[in-house]
Amino acid sequence: MTSQTQDWRSRAKAKKQQQLDSIPKEWILRNPPSKDQLNVTDIPRTCGLLSSREIEITESHVEAILSNLAKGIWSAVEVTTAFSKRAVIAHQLVNCLTEIFIERGFARAAELDDYFKRTGKVVGPLHGLPISLKDQLCVKGLDATMGYVAWIDKPSEKNSVLVDTLESLGAVFYVKTNIPQTLMFPETYNHIFGRTVNPANRALTSGGSSGGEGALVALRGSPLGVGSDIGGSIRIPAGLNGLYGMRPSYHRTPYAGNVNSLEGLNSVYSVLGPLTTSLETVKTFMSSVISKEPWQYDPLVIRKKWNEDEYRLCDHNGGKQLCFAILWDDGMVRPHPPVLRALETARDALTRAGHKVIDWDPAGLAEVNNVASKLWGSVGKQDSLAVTSLSGEHLITTMRPEVEDLENLFELPSRYKALNLTAFEFWQVNVLQRQLRQEYLDRWRETANVTGTGRPVDAIIAPVAPYAAMPHGQHRNAVYTTVWNILDYPAIAIPVTTVDPILDVKRERSSFYNEDDRTNWEYYGPEKFKDAPVGIQVVGRTLQEEALIGMTEIVDRSLKTYQPKL
Amino acid sequence: MTSQTQDWRSRAKAKKQQQLDSIPKEWILRNPPSKDQLNVTDIPRTCGLLSSREIEITESHVEAILSNLAKGIWSAVEVTTAFSKRAVIAHQLVNCLTEIFIERGFARAAELDDYFKRTGKVVGPLHGLPISLKDQLCVKGLDATMGYVAWIDKPSEKNSVLVDTLESLGAVFYVKTNIPQTLMFPETYNHIFGRTVNPANRALTSGGSSGGEGALVALRGSPLGVGSDIGGSIRIPAGLNGLYGMRPSYHRTPYAGNVNSLEGLNSVYSVLGPLTTSLETVKTFMSSVISKEPWQYDPLVIRKKWNEDEYRLCDHNGGKQLCFAILWDDGMVRPHPPVLRALETARDALTRAGHKVIDWDPAGLAEVNNVASKLWGSVGKQDSLAVTSLSGEHLITTMRPEVEDLENLFELPSRYKALNLTAFEFWQVNVLQRQLRQEYLDRWRETANVTGTGRPVDAIIAPVAPYAAMPHGQHRNAVYTTVWNILDYPAIAIPVTTVDPILDVKRERSSFYNEDDRTNWEYYGPEKFKDAPVGIQVVGRTLQEEALIGMTEIVDRSLKTYQPKL
């Protein structure tokens, strides 16, 4: 081991220690669960650290919290305290946080309470609401390491546009959340903060790259988190943790001023969106952020006001007798039984509610996914290597626990082949992407011939992934989410069910699309996925955020009516 | 000379001959002006080929034409005949056309007349309006060579989205217009169709790359032309021909289905927009195209309806007491006296009309222009060379008449240096572009501190170019237009005046920014620019098409009130 590598390891360790030291002593779990206890979802409410009022606060949806804050029933300080405590408890269970800055949260909350006391008014629609932020979101004075050792002790000089926007709406910030190094994995592990695990089963991944958010919000350590998504990084952790998570279209929410990977890739853009416990909150987040005219602060944001008529489905028959199309299977890797059951449940619920449900043809998706592979691989990770080379830490190329710490392991998964294209070759990938977007747009529009509604399919329903949360290092397929990023279709993950060994028996198959498909089928056994949540995606057309939320509410409501116990 | 090069020359010649053959014999000018006659603007009305009614039709603005068509006062066939005739006359004077397909135009016009006769109704808001199309716009069954010999006899398989859209609105197509090979020049010359010249002075350029449109519309051979603009290609020919021309923001109008250069350059996008004789027509074009929801047909078009409130300047004090900022000089090349006088006239007219006028600081524009040079040069013309190599014709690298036909002359102007970047290097240019867009957005927003209106500057007024129309081969500077493309600000060129040897005397200067600036100053003499029109640009913020048209109307009206003789 060279001195340089010793150095990065000790810097990572010191940073982690600093994080642990920032936790108030009195919030340390006295009886932490044993490593063998996989499901830790009940511990926050049973560990004895939270009062019953704190449990009530943290288990409320955002709308109730905002309403109680606006009425003065709850103070911002007590709401912030409750979530700070619960976030720290969650962190001890699933290792979901990066920066912990609850003192700043308290100070901000106290200011808001003071303002409310003086004026009787809220500062904005998110007055007093604690919001957790994925590590890459820049908050003045705090690190945004993104899991890179080289970026330790480089505090952000100012807030990013979204952070400023949320603050101006009344938000309180108190924690940032864990990510995989490079952000380009659907799981969450890096050399500084380690691995985030799934609260429903700690042997399983919490997903990624917004895996810290997924685990934290699932444990109600935050009522609303901000994640980013370039290939599923919001929807995968939302789906794998039983949450709601939205990927808006490119440039609907402001990205400026945050750190990121793949900077300068102007073909598919990472976007910021919410992970939360209700669909209403997804709308609150989107409409309130857009109400602040983020195009005044981020040159890439589209000047397009929030449109309540579109939300009320003025272009979709007012929400009556919609036609949904289900993508059962992408023709590359067939989903596991719990995922198929979630889709079947959605079909039955929507049909019962009077909507039409047809099948969505997977044609073209393989080509779309190929474009993703080419785009991710086009510069061969030169951007990430430029950062890791500064500290000497190695580039992480797998999330598998047994090999993650091997240095200089260049086992690049196939979706991430280093292509090292020229600019001209790269442009040809862009041309192909545009062509596929054109073909898909035409395909969708032409469904008007088969829906029987006079309109094209209103929304597509698809798996979030071909499986529920996988054991660590096994979640390698992000195709079901990535294709919509390449096409720039907004998509919302919503929870449907959890893996049920009785219902989700292995389904026999005799033929397979390819080796990945066979391996995935062979791998399945319900016992591996014990307690894992299962979500689905509802997918709309580009820049249809308002209508997509409206249609997803219909899906969500139909599901809740159909299976009222959930 | 090899047989291959002989071959491309004969193919080019045959195509040109085919074009000439498509002109009805009875529309050939019996007494064409001598080469020495530079100003040919009066010839269409004096040559004897047009009836007085045809003169009346072709010298009407679009609104009057549409109104007379809708009332049945003029038939579509007679309007199409008048413009077809005048287009062919114009072509004989300034060589502005590529494809001439007036028979198709007549057939379409007859159909429209028939529909009108049967129903008493128009098919749409552009019912019966002849519209000319820049060569790169694809019309089913017609070539779109873009000046490349290799693309001769490769008719388009279908209409592009914009062509379909305009057709559905009622347009009649009859001619396509000339462009420079590669489209990446602000003048117009290629090996097939030759050079387009300026109707006001045939020794001067008509601009480019939509130079055929500029010359045709200036001669009233078309009431409305569609051009494209990635660095000024609509605004330069509009400005140099005394017309109105708009560059909308990226993805506000549909581009899909046309041929283009730099395909896959996802950093700065070429956009389609109108060249015409009134500002009202700019609005008619934009609002009617957007009314057809082009996002249903082109995946890149932004889902954003036309907003009349924004046009009525709801975000700009209803149009009262606006604050305009004038960019007098970009700090790189100071404009010639006629251009400065045009800006002074605008300042005085706006001040007289009760608006505030301040100076716009050119800081940052040099960096923005550097990004343009890097983007244009990033793949070293590999895309164009791939096309020229198919036929053996050489890549045109200068518009200078004395050298344009030298083969394999690789005198690349400095703005076009072949960089042959890697994808990763190219991404860094994108990062720089985004950073400059951020800085410029912040700069503009912060002008709220100095305008005294409580708002940031409402619009910027800038030169179209540092000179009026230049002698052929001399128009090399496109910085005044290109910077807004890189920043993605919509901009409208409007006419202000013409070069006046008495008013536009050379202004003494003792110091210069650089050699280009000195050369440009030395070059000036009003006699070189005899009769040349001078326009200015009005520049708005990204996706502010509606408000920009509204504000430009204020500028235009103020100018017309201030100098009523124009």
Automatic annotation (TrEMBL), chains A, B:
Reaction(s) catalysed by this chain's protein: a monocarboxylic acid amide + H2O = a monocarboxylate + NH4(+)
Domain Amidase: 78-548
Keywords attached to this entry: Hydrolase
Entry EC no(s): 3.5.1.4
Chain residues that bind substrate: 183, 209, 230-233
Catalytic class of the enzyme: hydrolase
Active site residues of this protein: 134 (charge relay system), 209 (charge relay system), 233 (acyl-ester intermediate)
InterPro entries: Amidase_CS, Amidase_dom, AS_sf
One GO MF term: amidase activity
Family assignment from sequence similarity: Belongs to the amidase family.
Annotated protein name in UniProt: amidase
Organism whose genome encodes this protein: Agaricus bisporus var. burnettii (strain JB137-S8 / ATCC MYA-4627 / FGSC 10392)
